[in-house]
Structures are given as structure tokens and as C-alpha cells.
Design brief:
The protein is 31% helix and 26% strand. It is built from 14 helices and 23 strands. A four-stranded mixed β-sheet has the order 21-22-1-23. The protein has a four-stranded mixed β-sheet with strand order 2-14-16-15. Strand 11 and strand 12 form a beta hairpin. The structure holds uridine-diphosphate-N-acetylglucosamine (UD1). Uridine-diphosphate-N-acetylglucosamine binds next to helix 1, helix 5 and helix 6.
């Protein structure tokens, strides 16, 4: 079984290149289904979620391959047959296929996307939005069958600013007749990125980054070369690991404009930053100050995807902190593992009450989800003694060869597979 073996206690020093964001690359790959022409996506991470999306597009008849760090996609031969359920079960982001397939072919069949370790994650907002756009949806227990031949202009008011639903609805409207308005849209940088990508292909999407997005349908899209935005969550994860271990690391490509809430937190905890045109340095030489109270919320609030790593960081702060999780209902499963490493954290409903301890100690622990796994890895890197981290396939979903990146910074971490 694959696992990381980690000897903790090394300061982190050096450079990390941050690649394009998983949460941009996945919907943008799906959006490629809307064009017959070739698209080249640059600086993409070789992570298992990207490989799963490639498999889904190939299963539909598209061509997808990595050329160095670029992904080349051609969907001229895509055929909107139903997507193999075994592929959609693997990854929640398979739901992104629905919008672009409907946009181009006006019909789609998709199995329910995989259940998820961090919460129930229904897709009612995706489906409800499509119905408001005039799509006929037959929803049985196993699959969703959609007929978009009657797709019309209109306004969709989202009950909650869901990232995925906003992206799916933008794509569904891209090649439809008339004008679609999405109200209470999510405003994450990855949504702006999807808008910019679609517009680079000749689409007409405006307003992303605000709560109102307007899509004017176009007849066709072209090909393009495009570099998706850098991964603010991967950059934030490395920045917090530096704060936990001490040291000085340059995060190449990281964009401070998209990381305001995380940088403010880390400055409050005692980190220093040096800003450059192509990234920034994180320096930590002090004790970690606690944060008081922090809650996750939709962008520009504190990202839920940084919650686990931040709890790990605050577990060794000089004082107490409280973190409330407001986006997902089951995102504290890593906490008992962190406590096994010496942390003192009590979870009550959706809040984690953290009493800072001086040090963590090595232990045998297992990752239970992507970001929780990243949090346990950071904890093991700063802990006294040796740790073994199981369940690292979760970490591979979002971090490209995390062990090599941390080793390049001076950490002692090996991937074992015997
Ligand atoms: C995306 C990100 C994920 C991030 C999350 C919140 C991608 C590939 N994934 O996930 O990393 O943690 O945004 O920033 O971009 N909800 C419903 N009904 C729906 C859709 C969502 O009730 O139809 C709920 C979810 O259960 C959750 C909340 O809305 O409680 C937020 O979900 P959403 O913003 O849709 O997250 P994802 O797009 O799945």
C-alpha cells in the first residue's frame, strides 16, 4: 500500500513552482468539449483528478494527452453517449461534463457523480439551474437524462453561490440561443478563469468575479492556447507548511491577489512575505500566533479548501483558536489523526476548538480526503520523530508529487509502495 514515510523537524528552504489550479483546469478541460478545434492548456499539474477528467473526455470520444506540462485536447469526435458510470463515480468534478455536452449536443446522460468524503455534495443547484434554462431533466436513481432542445434565455437565481453549479451553467449557456443571467453566482478566481478561457475561444461571458454573470450564446467556439490561473490552494498549503516548519520558500507563480484572506491570516500568525512579480517568498522565524476566530466562506472569504491545513497550523500556535466550517458538513475527519500526533483539538458540530501545543510528534496516520491529507503531511513534516502517512492517493488528487516538492525544500519524505 502506498504511503509516505516522513522524518519531521526540518526547516523548509528553496523554491516551489506552483502550477495551474486543479479547480480551473478541470472545468476548462470539460469546456473543451464545446469546440471542434484543438486547445492547448499550459502549465497543468499531473495529478490524478486531471487524469480522471482526461479518461472521461476520452471515453466520450475526445483526444487528450500531456505534452510536457501542457495538456492537448481535441473534442472534434466527441459523441454524447452516456459517460461510463465507473468514471463519474471516481470524481465529483465529472458533473462538469453535463453543461458543455448539453451546450454542444443539446442532450446528455450522466450517472450521479461520486459521493464525497467531505459531505453529501448534492447537485440540485446544477439541475435546478438547467431546468430554469428550459432543459428537460429526467432524474432516476442512477442517471440524469437531459434534453436541452428547448434551451432558452432567462435568469437563474442560485440559492447558494455554488462554484460547480455556476461553472456548469455558464458552460450550458455558452452555445445556446439568447442571453442567460446567473444571479448569486460564485465569484471564485477559477470562475473568472473559465470565463476568460471561453471568451478566448470566441464565447461571450461577462461579469464573472461578481455575483451576476451574463452569457450571450454564440454559434461556435474555436481552438486556443491558454494558461489557467495558478493554484492558490496549493500555494497556500506550501505557505502554511513553511509557517509550521520554519524557513524561507519562494512560491513561483503564486498570485497574492487571489490569496488575500490566507495571506492576512498568515501575517497575523507571524509570517513575513517578500513580493515579486512572478510569485512571493514566505518567511517564518517566529512563534506562531493563534488566530482567535476564523470561519470559511465563499470567495473572497477564507477558503474551505484551506481549512484543514490551517487547523494543523494553529494546532502548534502559542494560544487558542476556533475555526468554523460553513461550506461542507463533514470536513473535520482528519482531526482525530492530528490529535494522535499530539494536537489538542475538540470538534463540536461545525467548529474546531484548538488549544495550541508546543510540538507535534510522529505517528502512523491515514488521510481521509485531499486537503485533510495535505494537513497531515504538513503536520508530519514539522513533528518530532517519524510518521507514516497512508491514504496518499487522496493527496495525489490535488498535489503533483508532493514528496518530491517537499524533498526539494529540504524535508525528509519518501513514497513507499511495498
Ligand atoms: C468546488 C471546488 C472545491 C471547493 C468548493 C467550495 C472544484 C473542482 N471543486 O467544489 O475544491 O471546496 O468548490 O469552494 O472546483 N451544494 C448543494 N447543491 C449543489 C451544489 C452544491 O447543496 O447542487 C452545496 C455543497 O454540498 C456544499 C456547498 O454547496 O455544501 C458548496 O459546494 P460547491 O460550491 O458547489 O462546491 P463544488 O463545486 O463541489
Amino acid at each position: 500500500m502506498e504511503r509516505f514515510s516522513i522524518k519531521g523537524g526540518k526547516k523548509l528552504k528553496g523554491d516551489v513552482v506552483i502550477k495551474s489550479a486543479k479547480n480551473s483546469v478541470l472545468p476548462i478541460m470539460a469546456a473543451c468539449i464545446m469546440t471542434n478545434e484543438t486547445v492547448v492548456l499550459k502549465n497543468c499539474p499531473k495529478i490524478s483528478d486531471v487524469f480522471s477528467m482526461s479518461e472521461i473526455i476520452k471515453d466520450l470520444g475526445g483526444k487528450v494527452f500531456f505534452d510536457g506540462d501542457n495538456i492537448v485536447i481535441n473534442c472534434a469526435d466527441v459523441n454524447p453517449v452516456s459517460i461510463d458510470a465507473s468514471l463519474t463515480k471516481k470524481m465529483r468534478s465529472s458533473v462538469f461534463i453535463l453543461g458543455p455536452v448539453l451546450s454542444r449536443f443539446k442532450r446528455a446522460i450522466i450517472s450521479y457523480p461520486g459521493g464525497c468524503e467531505i459531505g453529501a455534495r448534492p447537485i440540485d443547484l446544477h439541475i435546478g439551474g438547467l431546468i430554469q434554462m428550459g432543459v428537460k431533466v429526467i432524474d432516476d436513481e442512477n442517471e440524469i437524462r437531459c434534453d436541452a432542445s428547448g434551451l432558452k434565455s432567462g435568469t437563474i437565481n442560485l440559492r447558494f453561490p455554488s462554484v460547480g453549479a455556476t461553472e456548469n451553467l455558464i458552460m450550458a449557456a455558452t452555445l445556446s440561443k439568447g442571453e442567460t443571467t446567473i444571479l448569486n453566482a460564485a465569484a471564485e478566481p477559477e470562475i473568472v478563469d473559465l470565463q476568460n478561457f471561453i471568451n478566448t475561444l470566441g464565447g461571450n461571458v461577462k461579469g464573472a468575479g461578481s455575483t451576476k454573470i451574463v452569457i450571450k450564446g454564440v454559434d461556435t467556439l474555436s481552438g486556443s492556447e491558454y494558461t489557467p490561473v495558478c493554484d492558490r490552494i496549493v500555494a497556500g498549503t506550501f505557505a502554511e507548511a513553511v509557517c509550521m516548519c520554519g524557513g524561507k520558500v519562494f512560491l513561483k507563480n503564486a498570485d497574492k491577489k487571489q490569496m488575500g484572506s490566507v495571506i492576512r491570516l498568515l501575517e497575523g500568525c507571524g509570517a513575513d512575505f517578500i513580493w515579486h512579480n512572478n510569485g512571493f517568498e514566505v518567511i517564518m522565524s517566529d512563534i506562531i500566533r493563534p488566530c482567535g476566530f476564523l470561519k470559511t466562506s465563499p470567495y473572497p472569504g477564507f477558503p474551505t479548501d484551506m481549512q484543514s491545513q490551517t487547523v494543523a497550523l494553529l494546532s502548534i500556535a502559542a494560544g487558542d483558536s476556533v475555526i468554523e466550517e460553513t461550506i461542507f458538513e463533514n470536513r473535520f475527519r482528519y482531526v482525530p489523526r492530528l490529535n494522535k500526533m499530539g494536537a489538542k483539538i475538540i470538534c463540536k458540530e461545525n467548529e474546531a476548538f484548538i488549544t495550541g501545543v508546543n510540538t507535534l510528534h510522529g505517528a502512523e496516520v491515514d488521510a481521509t480526503d485531499l486537503r485533510g491529507g495535505a494537513a497531515l503531511l504538513s503536520a508530519a513534516l514539522c513533528a518530532e520523530g517519524e510518521s507514516t502517512l497512508f491514504g496518499i492517493h487522496y493527496i495525489d488528487r490535488g498535489y503533483e508529487k508532493a514528496e518530491e516538492a517537499y524533498r526539494a525544500l529540504g524535508a525528509e519524505v519518501k513514497r513507499l509502495s511495498d
